Amino acid sequence: MPRIAQDATVQTVITTFEMTPGTCQDLLDALRAAYAEFISKQPGFIAAGLHVNDAQTRIANYSQWERREDFLAMLRTDEMRARNRKFNDLCKSFEPVMYDVAATFDTK
């Protein structure tokens, strides 16, 4: 499970995918398969979550990695490059962006 905290020493990556409602489920299935079969088994992977908006026109993917280099190494593999080409065919655009946690808030 992802842990969101300012003092976390992990690399956070948020990727947004834009698609039509007609391809949302196909892309979601492809993303689930990528995590189950490949991404979650890569060195440095910690956790991830997939979120779909109510109009099924966007998917937000939140992932955490031990180090920035671990995420970049995963992206550079032949396996992930092939999967990214498939993702690209299923959506209008997608963009992974690395973030640092600036602040967190809760009800406690």
From TrEMBL:
<dbReference type="InterPro" id="IPR007138">
    <property type="entry name" value="ABM_dom"/>
</dbReference>
<dbReference type="Pfam" id="PF03992">
    <property type="entry name" value="ABM"/>
</dbReference>
<keyword id="KW-0560">Oxidoreductase</keyword>
<dbReference type="InterPro" id="IPR011008">
    <property type="entry name" value="Dimeric_a/b-barrel"/>
</dbReference>
<feature type="domain" description="ABM">
    <location>
        <begin position="11"/>
        <end position="101"/>
    </location>
</feature>
<keyword id="KW-0503">Monooxygenase</keyword>
<protein>
    <submittedName>
        <fullName>Antibiotic biosynthesis monooxygenase</fullName>
    </submittedName>
</protein>
<dbReference type="GO" id="GO:0004497">
    <property type="term" value="F:monooxygenase activity"/>
</dbReference>
